[in-house]
């Protein structure tokens, strides 16, 4: 993890502050002891961004409705054995940084993105307290796949 | 493959078995401690499927056991005990859980509930102020790298040398509050950073500090030996290794997933990720897990210090000293010797949502509980009863010296919030003379007693099974929650 200066030369960028779009792209569903997030998106990159936004929403509800500035910029590099593992490891890395910096990350810019590795810049803002203490992002029941409608989807279970 | 009750062999009214032949990849049978009523609740989620998955771990021994408070987890179910051969078998971080050494400690006062009654409101307010709870609140000490490494390496005895406890506290903690194989170097910087300001904090979720009164004694002999009496005021502390432990688990589950192909290990669930115990990855995880366990014991030790200061501030000298009955771990792996097919065998016992319950004359118990067996503390859900039990010799042969750890969730947090109003719950508990101090009314609803199994039913199963025997019944009077 490195601190970055801003450079607008990214391969691609997604700003999940477009909440109207994203509110439709994930939903929270009941689970005995934890929180389960169901995520859908048109592309794999959008799926990763939506999952990140869903996790931010669990950590601090509607934080980016109120805070539009994201002064904290960090770089995340993840390599994993497959795309599902990559998504969970990516979310784990962001959760770790949220906990270390007491921050919520609401913007993701991908510099590199493949099936098994990614490099991204994440932007966020400090928060006084979280709504939920997420212990971990689990691999349990996660599977990134295309549904019959051609959308990418997965479930992510957070240990609370 | 779906499982129905017809697939279970009834061994007695409180023990059931799924034989090894049920699924081709099972290496040992699965055994379930449950009454008929509890068994029905276990079928409602994926607990049994996860239990069977745990039986497939390389080197697994004898049987995998499920406790009556079990529910669906990730990888292993919560409420499971599994032992793998040491050192030939594997160690699985998923068999220990994310909250390493989440556990419970019971403090005993010499103060009766009747004498405490006039001070209850003040004590509740003072405890709420003194113990940082909730999500993201830092603790009373921020550790620099050297002191954090001391905590990770030396556990609760280190904090006692720093003035945060009495020397005899250590004799009343499982493993004397420190696992000796802990290595701070095995803990990542991420994990250290997450834990650096969290020592002495309770956190959120089902963690709590509770003042209770001893309402009923079941076993006078053990109660007397434990120093427990009717109407006595006691204090329960339930928390774990906080963000540090969560990160240790996250780091090593990821690492082990990557190395499993190297060791030709294939498992039915990613969260069961494991490595041979004797491998570099297995040994590094075992050292890191031990360090996180030591952090958790220090956390409960520092909260004890906060409680003791508050107790004295509220009650003055008349409050007397708060002593520790015992401190038990719920999520941990340990090397222990157990009898398997008439032979003493060294195994790595994984307890995930389960409590060690060693009976009398066990060499690992110190002189204080050598003749009695260890105290077992089973906290109920918020506002419901808790229990003190005692470990038994029977637990050694029936469940690798283990018993249940709590009531066990049976309703999702979402459902609990939908059905229960936090404010109404607080008012209902007040009618039962239970004061609740919580940073989050929403969080209160999530932890409502209705979201959990009936603790009396759960404890009856372990008592009737002989894997721990009831000693005393605790009724809460003050609950402090995150």
Which key terms come to mind for this protein?
heterodimer, A: 160 residues, alpha+beta, 5-stranded antiparallel sheet, 9 strands, B: alpha+beta, tRNA-splicing ligase RtcB, 8-stranded mixed sheet, 7-stranded mixed sheet, 19 strands
SSE order and pairing:
The complex is a heterodimer of chains A (160) and B (482).
Chain A: E1 2-3, H1 19-23, E2 26-30, E3 35-41, H2 44-59, H3 63-66, E4 72-79, H4 83-101, E5 103-113, E6 117-126, E7 136-138, E8 145-146, E9 152-159
Antiparallel strand pairs in A: 1-4, 2-3, 3-9, 4-6, 5-6, 7-9, 8-9
Chain B: E1 9-12, E2 15-18, E3 30-33, H1 36-42, H2 47-54, E4 64-74, E5 76-85, E6 90-91, E7 103-112, H3 113-116, H4 120-130, H5 145-154, H6 156-161, H7 189-195, E8 208-217, H8 220-226, E9 232-239, H9 242-259, E10 275-276, H10 280-315, E11 323-329, E12 331-340, E13 343-352, E14 355-356, E15 375-378, E16 386-390, H11 393-398, E17 402-403, H12 413-419, H13 422-431, E18 435-438, H14 441-446, H15 455-465, E19 469-481
Parallel strand pairs in B: 3-4, 18-19
Antiparallel strand pairs in B: 1-2, 2-3, 4-5, 5-13, 6-10, 7-9, 7-11, 8-9, 8-19, 12-13, 14-17, 15-16, 16-19
Helix pairs in contact in B: 4-10, 5-10, 7-9, 9-10
Give the structure's gist in a few sentences.
The complex is a heterodimer of chains A (about 160) and B (about 475). By secondary structure, chain A is an alpha+beta fold.
Overview of this protein structure:
- The complex is a heterodimer of chains A (160) and B (482).
- Chain A is of the alpha+beta class and 160 residues long.
- Chain A contains four helices and nine strands.
- Chain A has a single domain, classed as Archease, Possible Chaperone, Chain: A, domain 1 (3-Layer(bab) Sandwich).
- Helix content of chain A is 28%, strand content 35%.
- In chain A, the strands form two sheets. In chain A, strands 2, 3, 7, 8 and 9 form a five-stranded antiparallel β-sheet that branches. A four-stranded antiparallel β-sheet of chain A has the order 1-4-6-5, with helices on one face.
- The longest helix of chain A is centred in the middle third of the chain and has 19 residues, at 83-101.
- The relative contact order of chain A is 0.24.
- Residues 1-23 of chain A have low confidence and may be disordered.
- Chain B has one domain (5-410, 452-481): tRNA-splicing ligase RtcB (Alpha-Beta Complex).
- Chain B has 15 helices and 19 strands.
- Chain B has helices at residues 36-42, 47-54, 113-116, 120-130, 145-154, 156-161, 189-195, 220-226, 242-259, 280-315, 393-398, 413-419, 422-431, 441-446, 455-465, and strands at 9-12, 15-18, 30-33, 64-74, 76-85, 90-91, 103-112, 208-217, 232-239, 275-276, 323-329, 331-340, 343-352, 355-356, 375-378, 386-390, 402-403, 435-438, 469-481.
- In chain B, the strands form four sheets. In chain B, strands 7, 8, 9, 11, 15, 16, 18 and 19 form an eight-stranded mixed β-sheet that branches. A seven-stranded mixed β-sheet of chain B has the order 1-2-3-4-5-13-12, with helices on both faces.
- The relative contact order of chain B is 0.18.
- The A-B interface holds A 28-35, 80-81, 85, 89, 92, 96, 99-100, 102, 127-133, 135-140, 142, 157, 159-160 and B 45, 71-75, 78, 98-99, 134-137, 190, 193-194, 203-205, 243, 246-247, 249-250, 253-254, 257-258, 269-271, 273, 409-415, 482.
């Amino acid at each position: 993890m490195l601190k970055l200066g801003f450079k607008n030369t990214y391969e691609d960028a997604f700003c999940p502050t477009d909440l109207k779009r994203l509110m439709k792209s994930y939903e929270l569903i009941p689970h005995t002891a934890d929180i389960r997030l169901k995520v859908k998106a048109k592309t794999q990159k959008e799926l990763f961004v939506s999952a990140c936004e869903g996790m931010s929403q669990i950590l601090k509800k509607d934080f980016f409705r109120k805070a539009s500035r994201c002064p904290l910029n960090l770089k995340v590099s993840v390599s994993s054995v497959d795309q599902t593992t990559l998504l969970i490891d990516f979310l784990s890395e962001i959760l770790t940084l949220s906990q270390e910096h007491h921050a919520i990350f609401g913007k993701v810019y991908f510099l590199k993105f493949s099936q098994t590795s990614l490099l991204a810049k994440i932007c966020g803002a400090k928060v006084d307290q979280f709504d939920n203490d997420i212990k971990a992002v689990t691999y349990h029941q996660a599977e990134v796949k295309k549904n019959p409608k051609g959308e990418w989807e997965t479930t992510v279970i957070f240990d609370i | 493959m779906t499982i129905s009750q017809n697939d279970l062999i009834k061994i007695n009214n409180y023990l059931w078995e799924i034989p090894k032949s049920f699924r081709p990849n099972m290496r040992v049978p699965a055994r379930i401690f449950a009454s008929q009523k509890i068994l029905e609740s276990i079928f409602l989620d994926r607990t049994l499927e996860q239990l069977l998955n745990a039986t497939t771990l390389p080197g697994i021994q004898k049987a995998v056991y499920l406790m009556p408070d079990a529910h669906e987890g990730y990888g292993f179910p919560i409420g499971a005990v599994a032992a793998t051969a040491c050192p030939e078998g594997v160690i699985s971080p998923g068999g220990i859980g994310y909250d390493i050494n989440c556990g419970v400690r019971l403090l005993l006062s010499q103060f009766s509930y009747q004498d405490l009654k006039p001070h209850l409101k003040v004590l509740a307010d003072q405890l709420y102020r003194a113990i940082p709870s909730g999500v993201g609140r830092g603790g009373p000490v921020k550790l620099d790298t050297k002191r954090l490494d001391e905590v990770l390496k030396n556990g609760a005895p280190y904090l006692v040398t720093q003035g945060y406890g009495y020397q005899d506290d250590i004799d009343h903690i499982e493993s004397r509050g420190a696992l000796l194989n802990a290595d701070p170097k095995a803990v990542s910087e991420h994990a250290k950073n997450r834990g650096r300001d969290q020592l002495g904090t309770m956190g959120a979720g089902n963690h709590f500090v509770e003042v209770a009164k001893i309402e009923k004694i079941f076993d006078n002999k053990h109660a007397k030996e434990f120093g427990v009496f009717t109407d006595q005021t006691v204090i329960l502390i339930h928390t774990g290794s906080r963000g540090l432990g969560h990160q240790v688990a996250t780091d090593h589950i990821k690492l082990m997933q990557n190395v499993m192909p190297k060791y030709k290990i294939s498992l039915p669930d990613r969260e069961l990720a494991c490595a041979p115990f004797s491998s570099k990855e297995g040994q590094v995880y075992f050292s890191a897990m031990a360090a996180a366990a030591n952090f958790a014991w220090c956390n409960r030790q520092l909260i004890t210090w906060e409680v003791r200061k508050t107790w004295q501030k509220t009650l003055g000298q008349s409050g007397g000293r708060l002593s520790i009955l015992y401190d038990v771990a719920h999520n941990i792996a340990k090397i222990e010797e157990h009898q398997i097919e008439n032979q003493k065998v060294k195994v790595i016992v994984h307890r995930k949502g389960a409590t060690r319950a060693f009976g009398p004359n066990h060499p690992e118990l110190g002189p204080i509980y050598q003749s009695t067996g260890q105290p077992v503390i089973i906290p109920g859900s918020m506002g419901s009863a808790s229990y003190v039990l005692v470990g038994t010799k029977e637990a050694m042969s029936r469940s690798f010296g283990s018993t249940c750890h709590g009531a066990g969730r049976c309703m999702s947090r979402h459902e609990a919030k939908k059905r229960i109003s936090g404010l109404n719950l607080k008012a209902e508990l007040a009618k039962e003379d239970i004061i609740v101090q919580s940073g989050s009314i929403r969080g209160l609803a999530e932890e409502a007693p209705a979201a959990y199994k009936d603790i009396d039913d759960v404890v009856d199963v372990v008592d009737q099974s002989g894997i721990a025997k009831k000693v005393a019944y605790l009724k809460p009077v003050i609950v402090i929650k995150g």
